[in-house]
Amino acid sequence: MQRQTRKKFFYLLFAAFIVLAPVIIAYSLGYTINFSTWSLEQRGGIFIKSKIARISIFLNNEFQKETSLFSGGALLTEIQSGTHLLRLEKENYRPWSKTVAVEPAAVTEIRNVILIPSPILTATATRDEIATLAATTSASSRKLRLDKEKNLVEDHMLNNRATATILAKQVNSFADLSGAIFFITEPGFAAKLTETGTIETLGRPGFFISPKIRAQFFISPRGELAILDATGGLFILEEGNNELKPLSGSVKTISFDAEGEKLILKKEQSIEIIWLQDNEYQPFQKRGTTEQIIALQEPILEAKWYHEDDTHIIIRTKDGIYLTEIDGRGGRNTAELVSYKTDELLTSPDATNIIYFRKEKTWYRIEL
């Protein structure tokens, strides 16, 4: 090759580099060319995760790929920023869909997707199975009661004789939880009686005291105390604090998730959750965030965590049993599991993917 030819070839390659280098760098940063406007656009992605493998993924009604056989995950890239319709399908399962917002140079994560089997298979459960799951593993052997003078009394045997010891006076409500006795006095103070007999005052946060309706006490897996007073006022003693603080009102009952990171608040016709810890995953709710999950025109009878992922809630109404997502981005999917009247609902961290329900005297189970 002659010197002049080599020089021309060099300049040609140099010119190609000058032209293509910015395009390659822009592409590596997530930019692509929009040929309709001849402009650079930065694009994003969507990550989908489900325990079910080989789910077909459709974006804006166009097939993209399947989730992994081994991990159940899939990553869609080069997606134009904006709102897109994501649909997931698999044979013998109900389709799942929601709108997904994609931002430039970011990946939107859609985790813990549950596809409902079609049809749903229901089997009977044994009474021993239900009794084991419903048992309180931390139940105390101490015999506590309130006497006629509203004293908190412990009954025990001393030298083969029945003996009663007064632990506290003017008590309205109490509970024995995780080795400690918590109680509320008639004047409205909350206190804790430790195993050593020491009484620790937890404040007077403004309980409604009723002579007929006792307060309810709950302890989280992290050791946080929650109290529901007679009118549904919710108070919580967070880890590291020494005084109860009010959180909500008109609450019928509550339920901690398996890690104690969030709390279901079941009200008459709605369900809310409170984040007790920062959420490590999208959409990154902060500690103290309250979200309404669902509101109905009819009473909600029960609400339980689906413990397989603790990102879904099982709801029982007079008409049936339903599963709903807590991730509200793009709308929440709510699926009917049982289409008839039932009498009781049970879920347990010891049977994470099973939903138990009772109709009359028979218990049934659904495995998702």
Structural notes for this entry:
The radius of gyration is 29 Å and the shape is elongated. Among the domains are: 3-34; 43-113, Immunoglobulin-like, CATH 2.60.40. The protein has helices at 3-28, 127-134; strands at 31-34, 39-42, 44-50, 56-59, 62-66, 73-79, 82-89, 96-102, 107-113, 122-124, 143-146, 152-158, 161-168, 171-177, 180-185, 190-193, 199-203, 216-219, 225-228, 234-237, 245-248, 253-256, 262-266, 270-275, 290-295, 302-306, 312-316, 321-325, 334-338, 344-348, 351-359, 362-367. The termini are far apart. The longest helix is centred in the N-terminal third of the chain and has 26 residues, at 3-28. The chain is mostly beta strands. The mean pLDDT is 90.
Essential attributes:
368 residues; mainly beta; Immunoglobulin-like; 4-stranded antiparallel β-sheet; 2 helices; 32 strands; 9% helix; 47% strand; elongated
Indicate the radius of gyration in whole angstroms.
Answer: 29 Å
The backbone outline, from C-alpha atoms, is elongated
Just give the CATH class of the domain at 43-113. Answer: Mainly Beta
* Annotation, overall tally of beta strands: 32
Mean pLDDT: 90
Give the strand order, joined by hyphens, for the main sheet: 5-4-7-8
Low-confidence stretches: none
Largest sheet: 4 strands, antiparallel
The helix content is under 10%
Count, helices: 2
